[in-house]
Amino acid sequence: MNRPAPRLSFTLNGAPAQVAADDPTRRLSDVLRETLGLTGTKSGCDAGDCGACTVLVDGAAVCACLMPVARVAGRSVTTVEGLATDPAMAGLRAAFLRHGAAQCGICTPGMLAAAAALLAANAAPSPAEAEAAIGGVLCRCTGYRKIVAAICDAGRPAAAPAPPPAGAAVGARMERPDGPPKVAGADRFGADVWRPGGLRLRAVRSPHARAAFALGDIGAWAAATGGVAAVFTAADIPGRNAMGTIPGYIDQPVLAERHVRFRGEAVALVAFEDDGADRDLSGFPVTWTPLPALDAPAAALSPGAPALHDARPGNVLAAGLVRRGDAAAALAGAAHVAEIRIATGFVEHAYVEPEAGAAWMEGGTLVIRACTQAPAMDRDETAAILGLPPGRVRILPSAVGGGFGSKLDLSVQPYLGLAVLRTGRPARMTYSRTESMMATTKRHPAAMTVRAGCDAEGRLVALDFDGVFDTGAYASWGPTVANRVPVHATGPYRVPHVHARARGVYTNNPVAGAFRGFGVPQATIAVEAAYDRLAEAAGIDRLAFRRLNALRDGDATATGQVLAGVGIDACLAALEPRWQQALAEAAAANRAGGPLRRGVGVASCWYGCGNTGLPNPSTIRIGITPGGRAVLHQGATDIGQGSNGVILQIAADAAGLPADAFDLIGPDTHLTPDAGKTSASRQTFVSGRAAEAAGRALRAAILRQANAGEGARIALAPGAIGIDGARRIDLAALPVDADGYVFRAEATYDPPTSPLDADGQGVPYALHGYGAQMVELSVDTALGTVALHRITAAHDLGRAINPTLAEGQIEGGIAQGIGLALMEDYLPGRTENLHDYLIPTAGDVPQVDSILVEVPHPEGPFGAKGLGEHVLIPTAPAILNAIRHATGAEIDRLPALPHRVLAAIRAAGGAG
Amino acid sequence: MADYIRPATLADAVSALSAGPCTVLAGGSDLYAATGARGLSGRVLDVTALADLRGIAATAEGIRIGAAATWAEVAAAPLPPACDALRAAARTVGGVQVQAVGTVAGNLCNASPAADGVPPLLALDAAVELLGPAGARRLPLAAFLTGPRQTARRADEVMTAVHIPAPALAGRSAFRKLGARRHLVISIVMVAARVAVADGRVAQAALAVGACSPVARRLPAVEAALAGAAPAEAAGRIADAAVAAALDPIGDVRATAEYRAAAAAELLRRAVAEAAG
Q1: Of the residues B167, B182, B217, which one is the last residue of a structural domain?
Q2: Are residues A817 and A878 in the same domain?
Q3: How many domains does chain A have?
Q4: Which of A143, A280, A494, A881 has fewest C-beta within 10 Å?
Q5: What is the mean pLDDT of residues B181-186?
Q6: Do A817 and A874 meet the contact criterion of CB atoms below 8 Å apart?
Q7: A700 in the same domain as A622
Q8: Residue A291 clears pLDDT 70, i.e. is over it
Q9: Regarding beta strands A259-260 and A442-443, do their DSSP bridges make them parallel or antiparallel, or are they unpaired?
Q10: Domain end: B117, B146, B167, which one?
Q11: Which residues of A touch B38 (CB under 8 A)?
Q12: B135 contact A CB<8A
């Protein structure tokens, strides 16, 4: 450089700031995060597609990732940290908390900045104005409606809400305890914490779906490339070079050896010096020999197809079966039979936070802090890969910027561990958006054939379901999908004769794994379409058909499980008033003619909470400190869904203490007992039951100490516990245990289930949750475009521990269902960014009316059931059923993009 | 790391361009999206401090839009009804954050087949002004865009302005953009239609379609069919076959080629009905 390195001056959050202007084109987002330490500004894509990095420059909302830092010279930059101390924004922050507008919180800084720009110009925006203002910020959790409501409600005074009193936490719309840091930009996600002076890791990944490869002279490349501290290959892995999630199905190399099975598979890991320099992998010495790829299950199942894995000739990963009665005979004798063939594509989780983490050594312990849904599994798997005893690995889950199933699998953890272990230096790793999309799991594409039959009165008699699920190159959670789908195939209906099969098939496609519903959303699309046809054939209203067939207490499922606490008919009944009105409105609108046709559709869901016929315990611990605080060791990772609040609310009421008497110790494999994975809609139920038991045990211990009766009222005070406001236990007089507690209780709960037999008979789940949604929409029959008007969602969650969080789950699940139905299609090499891979924006989620139905289940904590996955399941089938109602169009391939809808309208002989 | 200059005068900009290959940086929404790096590399000429490239103003010959005018500025500008399509397009270029920095010239020089700004400007008979060492020259927009991601800009030229001639400011225009979601949409098809009515008859019709050919196109044969039509009947004169014949759409992940052609015709009918109504 022949110019002296100048300084660049600007105003940052109201104060003068200066940075070196040595690279004037550096992204403002990078300068804010890396140079100035303001990690409240998030990086989700570095391409202006997600809006997570939105900040204000001279009051205008801009993407900091698209802004050369030189351009802010002399201007005023406001980040979420600045908004957090701006009294004018207090109302907005309070509204976000009150409405539950922040779930995982990764989009919240960008949302707040976009909202602040709007509110500065328009203090009382309309919902349409708020929606337009946040149209450029993506959220994957909330479905946007609560964000829009919060922005419109920002003018209300920001009064701190009164915490619910003892015994009244369950059922209260309590603000999430981790909410304040989320709206202050202070929550720390995977990419937000690292040790300086360490290493920055990058993986070398395959550009081919199937290839042999040879590594060249890595030493020479490293010497010729700046900043390379170390390079690791498969040979460097000290333990098991395989990762996976299910014993017996651990088949994915951490670093591939000699050949790769999907585009995006890692073959080497480069540790660069973390010195702020831009490093890249260009020229890395690897020679690829591309091989013909098996690009679909049909190819993988064809005779003579090469086996992806020697252990599984034929490429079938797993097959699930449920057989009850004689479906073939019953179908032959049915009055009406409907057959559906439909296929779905890969769906990307598209959380706004790409996988990220950091690691370091603390004494002899490897500490890995990363975004995850499954800390204990991460610990055990990473330890096996690194050849360490599990106790030497400590997993510290960061705040998680969305998971939806994909963060159940390992991502950065083994790479971080390997680099730290081999170099002794701290390291960090952040996936780029494209890397996140290429390398991590997807929803399984499904090709399904359904035949369903009913009698002349519309009673279901039989279902035959066959689904082929593309599990991609490695197992991940494919076996779970293969097992869950047949169990759920009927939907929440009485079907006496069932034959349901699902196969997971290996291909050279992306690894398909867990995604909110484990295959059940795909299956429900096919089955609920068949039920619409049957209702029509039997001449019965579609909602009435579902109520006629709805499971009731005492009914047996296709696995022979006899049910209690069944809420599906209550959900369907709750839709009835809006259903009748919507049908009438649609008919009236359609009488007017024109290219727009209105339609109404309905679909149901049921979903078993917890693992399918396998143990999945949770343990929760509570202690009382000598100072008189309750401490909740809550190991259930909160990925935005709200377990930090829900588990607390349950524990508080079980203990008989107010929720604000508790301090939370979040997930940490050294400090919290294993609460299992955040998956299978199990945390509210399973960890909730453990929390309920721990709370009751703690209360019992206190009452014993005080010799008080069961109904006694207890209250924590500094250094003491008051009993019935009269007596007190002096905590200083009690012995303190190794954890520093004077009282402690720990409880484990494992749902009672039984394994399925060869015909899929057994009790796979201790309880199910139920729901039904109806969709009102219009289809433009000249263009094939679909406009959603309103979705009414009735969900039986047993007991709404926190109604605001429950509504947030419903609205967010619906948004993902909309994406599945209408726009999302992951194509390797084609849609590996958030520009080409479309997820719903704020304008794509209509009004959602949530109806919380509470049919308690005796097994659930306070009667509660799971909800997290249920909410996604009915949306797509209800949309497709409404499209058919509007136009006759029968969609056979999702997503229902405009050209597919138009073709289906024309095939049905409709307008166009 | 980039060698970055942000001149304040056109003379300095031109001399920088003359000195060797240079990436011209305007809003940055395309250049930064195209790199995974922390910043840009090579020689970078940032044109956003050039006062001559700013502003949207009426001139003796029509309207001049400074090349570095942002889409937010276009959307907010008090332009005549003939520019309604352009203003509507401005509100669909990314989200508000991209509209705040993204420029008209950047959209044109990036030359995406789905560039939002192109159909409305084609319907306005726009010309671009380029400045290089040999001086300034003007090119019709249709001649400037030579292919997908290809333009007639020479390596040592910078776009300084877009000119809309006064005769093209007659009538009203409408814009339609079709995609699979509401915001942040990459077009499947987009159309702009400008219609001027005189004595109860269509006197001028300018129709342009984007994302249905390597470069957005005007449709002269379809335009000719509208001449002399009663405003209420104009849209009905747009035949699917004539539109399809004028376009060359591809099939890709967003839509089939057949769909694009059919949707373009339907959107043109709707845009014409609005502009003529």
Answers
A1: B167
A2: yes
A3: 4
A4: A280
A5: 91
A6: yes
A7: yes
A8: yes
A9: unpaired
A10: B167
A11: 23, 26-27, 30, 278
A12: no
Q: Are residues B29 and B113 in the same domain?
A: yes
> Do B134 and B97 share a domain, yes or no?
yes
Residues B140 and B176 in one domain: no
CB contact under 8 A, B96 and A71: no
- Please check whether residues A70 and A2 belong to one and the same domain: yes
Reported pTM: 0.98
Cα atoms in the 13 Å half-sphere on the side-chain side of A451? 14
Closest partner residue to B29 (CB to CB) among A23, A66, A897 is: A66
pLDDT-derived band at A163, boundaries 50, 70, 90: confident
Element (H, E) at A544: helix A542-549
Residue A409 sits in a domain whose CATH number is: 3.30.365.10
Q: Do B182 and A830 touch (CB under 8 A)?
A: no
Minimum-distance CB partner of A902 among B95, B259, B267: B259
Same domain, A626 and A733: yes
Query: In chain B, pLDDT over 70 holds for what percent of residues?
Result: 100
Q: Which of residues 87-126 of B touch A (CB under 8 A)?
A: 94-98, 100-101
pLDDT at A751 > cutoff 70: yes
Residue A406 confidence (pLDDT): 98
Domain for residue A489, yes or no? Answer: no
What six digits make up the tokens of A703?
A: 């009452």
Q: Do A434 and B36 touch (CB under 8 A)?
A: yes
A53-95 residue pLDDT tens: 999 999 999 999 999 999 999 999 999 999 999 999 999 999 9
- What is the distance between the alpha carbons of residues A332 and A451, in angstroms, rounded to a whole number? 11
Residue for token pair 């300034």:
B136
Flag whether the ipTM exceeds 0.90. Answer: yes
From A33, which residue of chain B is nearest by alpha-carbon distance?
A: B38
Q: Residue A840 and residue B181: Cβ atoms within 8 Å?
A: yes
pLDDT for A912: 43
Closest by CA to A143, choosing from A774, A637, A848, is A848
Kindly list the residues from chain A whose CB atom is less than 8 angstroms away from the CB atom of residue B266: 782-783
Decide if B27 and A432 are in contact by the 8 Å CB cutoff.
no
Same domain, B158 and B192: no
Contact A27, A47 (CB under 8 A): no
For B97, which of A27, A62, A898 is closest by C-beta distance? A62
Distance, in Å, from the CA atom of A461 to the CA atom of A336, rounded to the nearest integer, reads 10
* Mean model confidence pLDDT for chain A: 97
Quote the Cα angle for A563-A567-A572, to 5°. 135
Q: Which range among A275-279, A594-598, A848-852 shows the weakest confidence by mean pLDDT?
A: A275-279
Question: Which among A71, A822, A840 has the least Cβ separation from residue B48?
Answer: A71
pLDDT, residue A3, reads 53
Contacts with A831 from chain B: Cβ below 8 Å: 253
Co-location of B214 and B120 in the same domain: no
Closest chain B C-alpha to A63 CA, distance in angstroms:
6
Domain of residue A81, residue span: 1-171
Question: A38 to each of A20, A29, A54, how far by Cα in Å?
Answer: 16, 9, 13
Clarify whether residues B67 and B179 are in a common domain.
no
Residue A582 inside a domain? The answer is: yes
Distance from CA of B40 to the nearest CA of A (A): 6
Q: For residue B44, list chain A residues with Cβ-Cβ distance below 8 A.
A: 25
Check which CATH number belongs to the domain holding B179 and give it. Answer: 3.30.390.50
Please indicate, yes or no, if residue A350 is contained in any of the structural domains.
Answer: no
Segment A708-720 mean pLDDT? 96
Q: Averaged over A278-298, what is the pLDDT?
A: 96
A145 pLDDT above the threshold of 60: yes
- Nearest residue of chain B to residue A46 (CA atoms): B33
Q: Cβ separation of B256 and A899 shorter than 8 Å?
A: yes
Give residue A1's pLDDT band: very low, low, confident or very high (50, 70, 90): very low
Q: Work out the percent of chain A whose per-residue pLDDT is above 70.
A: 99
Residues A9 and A115 in one domain: yes
Judging contacts by C-beta atoms under 8 Å, the chain B residues touching residue A30 are: 38-39
Would the CB atoms of B33 and A133 count as touching at under 8 Å?
no
Distance (Å, rounded) from C-alpha B142 to C-alpha B121?
9
The size of the A-B interface in CB pairs under 8 A is 161
- Using the Cα atoms of residue B227, residue B231, residue B233 and residue B237 in order, give the sign of their dihedral: positive
A555 — pLDDT class (breaks 50, 70, 90): very high
Region B250-272: what's the mean pLDDT? 96
**Is A11 part of a structural domain of the chain?**
yes
Domain limits at B272? 172-276
Q: Where does the pLDDT of residue A6 fall: very low under 50, low under 70, confident under 90, or very high at 90 and above? A: confident
Q: Does B138 share its domain with B178?
A: no
* Cβ partners under 8 Å of residue A187, min gap 6: A105, A178, A181, A399
* Beta-bridge partner residues of A598: A778
Q: B190 and B144, same structural domain? A: no
